[in-house]
Amino acid sequence: MCRKRSKCSFSRLEVVLIVCLVLMIMVTVVLLLLHFLAKESNSKLRYFSPTTAPCSKQTKHIEIFSHSVISASNSTKVTPNYLLGVGRADCTGPVAEIPLMGYANPDQVGGGILIRLYSRAFIVADLDDSRRVVFVSADIGMVSQRVRLEVLKKLKSKYGELYRQDNVILSGTHTHSGPGGYFQYTLFWFTSKGLIRPSLNAIVNGIVKSIDIAHQNMKRGRLFINRGTVENSQINRSPFSYLKNPASERSRYSSNTDKEMVMLKMVDEDGHELGLISWFAVHPVSMNNTNHLVNSDNVGYASYLFEQEKNKGMLPGEGSFVAAFASSNLGDVSPNTKGPFCVNTGESCNNPQSTCPVGGATMCMAMGPGNDMFDSTRIIGQNIYLKARELYEKASQEVTGPLSSAHQWVNMSDVSVELNATHTVKTCKPALGHSFAAGTIDGVGAFNFTQGSVEGDPFWDKIRDQLLGEPSNETKACHKPKPILFSTGEMTWPHPWHPDIVDVQIAAIGSLAIVAVPGEFTTMSGRRLREAVKREFDFHGTPRMDVVIAGLCNVYTHYITTYEEYQVQRYEAASTIYGPHTLSAYIQLYRGLARAIATDTIQDLPRGPEPPVFNIGNMTLVPPLTPDRVPASKTFGDVLQEVRQQYRAREVIEVTFVGANPRNSAENTTEHNFLTVERYTSTSYSWHVVQNDASWDTRFYWTKGLLGRSNVTIEWHIPHGTEPGIYRIRYFGHYKKKLPNNHIAFIPFEGASSAFEITAL
């Protein structure tokens, strides 16, 4: 039949039958392969399992082995590698009248609270408890030298030599919405109004308490590491500086920011979840410099979401699971993903000087992805949280190996750096350039300063010379091409304006090396440092180390750019206080620490010159607390503006009370809640707290009036899914009262709104 046709072909029925036959053969082959693979897998599992388990339990063992995920429901204990402890403690401090630390805007003072600030501590110890490493991430702008020294002093008084400068890392998340005033160096006093003891004490005590809690709850457990890419959450705010780095170097990376998140997961030997540390490079500046509510910004919101998920039924700040979202090389990384625009015209100001045709640099601001700064904080924080949750659930690479920690104090104003066999350079005495005063697109400066200034301004230079003195020729030459605005390394009254003695530190937890840096490394600076440390470990026989940069640790020294970025003199370069070779100096120093860890010669490292501790009292320009007063016929806690009788989810409830200065509470109680949202339970005829001032959906505003009077307004942004029922809002405070014989008393009080109903949508 085929021979009678010009070309041989099959009928439609024949084609269908042939296809079916091929599919049946393929299915048979796949089933045979799966059968033999399953037998091989079961034989391997029997090798790892101490006893032969029934079929139902065998399924659990397979899941554990193949994914390295420990199920809390599985009663079989696994072999732990470390002793682990986690702890969290409040470090909020005063929320009113204290300048917020970050934007250097003296008008940005606290006037309430959005969410509380916490210190989160993690302790890892060898099983024989011979070595320990402590990592703390605190919701503060940065760790100051004064904070670190006071924390170490308190730890020594409690634990002797167990926790020391070499094995304790203190890192700030870099929120720009926390109270300032915790520095001993003079420069930071100007925008913080001095050294503010209540603020400093809250941070120090909170950090120590979080370490105490972790210390008291050490358990045998395991560590897992994972990494992944976070999208739509950051931009480079100085792209023109980044482009000055060699093209060959830039071509190795897909982005001008580090999008990778590194996540460390902690579980105990029974599979119970303990906590996590996430490192990701993004500035917590979703809340801009018009904000007056104390809060931990986008990374704090990520912690809030993760801890609320794991600590079911608990209020914020409660529960055993601790989630830290720590800082990394965030120096030139902004969360304001819409980029810079002129706020007066709407046109782009993405240019080398970040200036606008009308209004100059003060009009150029970057915007986040949301409708306002609260919405942008929520969006960026949720992006970070979702990626961390994904990495946490899929974490499979176990961290094993010994613990080590290396630390030195270094005089960063006088480090010789060997660039190669023939060239040696030096760091400089600290100094800030003119572009420092310009600020950034996340928070602009003042007057007519602009980014990218490589020449000084005669007007401002003359004022500086008259008030503070002219920089020496040596310092000018050392910092070129930076035009110096403040020669802080040559200014010593009443105390030095900037630190000379700086901490450098690396802690190794098995295959993980945490590089604790004392400032804000830019994207490319961080990449160079990570690669240099990793190469040093590789060269000395410790390959495949996971190297992470922990930012804003131990002492604050502003920014660290690459040599090439320094030549452009945008804000980050003008704030690289030890000169153009700062990064090279740090790379040399951290390579030395890595070498000492890898070769087990830490004991041979020079200790270095200890930093000074200045004798400073409560030196501050913050107004003193005065007695609080109330309007006629009113008392503290009375309602001035009442709630409505009925609301629906996603509406905003607002109630205003006769208030008192919140500083009264912060200075006389610890972890004091200013508000609660309570729901009435008819079965028990009682009220139960459902939210407080650490909740994202509540806002506490304090408004200062005249003659000691003040009001407090509390908002509750009713979240979607709120259970219908009867609710009320309560306010708690302390008022200051002058007693006979010049004695002072702080008297607690409270107020409550009328009950209101929340109905279903």
Automatic annotation (TrEMBL):
GO CC annotations on file: cytoplasm; extracellular region; plasma membrane
Active-site residue numbers: S334
Sample GO molecular function, one term: N-acylsphingosine amidohydrolase activity
Cofactor binding, per record: Binds 1 zinc ion per subunit.
Residue ranges of domain Neutral/alkaline non-lysosomal ceramidase N-terminal in the record: 82-588
One BP term from GO: sphingosine biosynthetic process
Domain Neutral/alkaline non-lysosomal ceramidase C-terminal: 591-758
Catalytic activity: an N-acylsphing-4-enine + H2O = sphing-4-enine + a fatty acid
Keywords: Hydrolase, Lipid metabolism, Membrane, Metal-binding, Sphingolipid metabolism, Transmembrane, Transmembrane helix, Zinc
Transmembrane segments: 12-38
EC class (word): hydrolase
Pfam families: Ceramidase_alk, Ceramidse_alk_C
Residue sites binding Zn(2+) per the record: H174, H283, E520, Y559
EC code(s) of this entry: 3.5.1.23
Co-factor requirement: Zn(2+)
Family as reported in the entry's similarity comment: Belongs to the neutral ceramidase family.
Protein name: Neutral ceramidase
Organism listed in the record: Oceanodroma tethys (Wedge-rumped storm-petrel)
Lineage: Eukaryota, Metazoa, Chordata, Craniata, Vertebrata
